[in-house]
Amino acid sequence: MPRRLDDRDGERRCRDCGAWKPLAEFCANSRRPDGRGSYCKPCFNARSKASYAKRIREQHGRDVRQPPAVPDGHRRCPACGVTKVLEDFPRNRSGRSGYGRYCKPCHNAKGKESRTRLHGGSREYHLRRRYGVGQKEFDELLAEQGGVCAICGTPDPQHLDHDHRTGWVRGILCFNCNGGLGQFRDDQSRLAEAITYLRGTTWQRVLIHPGVYQMCSPTRGRPPSPRS
């Protein structure tokens, strides 16, 4: 087959911009023997947009609205209409640029609206997604506990405790007790060692006479510092 005048080894000259470019930078065309068209990708996209605008004008009598120019490293949020730097958009590995479509405030607002519409609120969404229960089950379990933390008795606890191995809900705890179990990794031996440690290092205040107390020394440790 004779070579076209606008072809050379591994390259082609675009019929619009006249630039020589590798064949990989030309749009696919199954009707061509080499599988590539006559226009580079930028020129092909420009032609497609112009053709679409002409068709809309002829068929519907209106012009296609042109999006505002966006500088490199920026993106226009379609929700608020503001052009922002890419760092103001959440990460999204599935997107071509690696960033989401909406800026962070709009992304958060849309997520909150979706959670409210589908689940009745962020609290219900969080409980259902992470623990498999809703606010109704949470309130029932808290009532069974008497409305207090299952460990220390602090009123109105808000943290749902669960077994990290099985995912089963165990009870409702206050912030400190829930965090404490997490720091000890739910390990009973660690907790037992902590109790032994406290018993051996904490000075005890013992009543030796009405209104008179004496600090008793632990098995190990230093005496308490005097109060200033």
Automatic annotation (TrEMBL):
It comes from Micromonospora citrea. One of its GO terms (molecular function) is endonuclease activity. Keywords: Endonuclease, Hydrolase, Nuclease. SUPFAM superfamilies: His-Me finger endonucleases. The keyword Hydrolase applies. This is Recombination endonuclease VII.
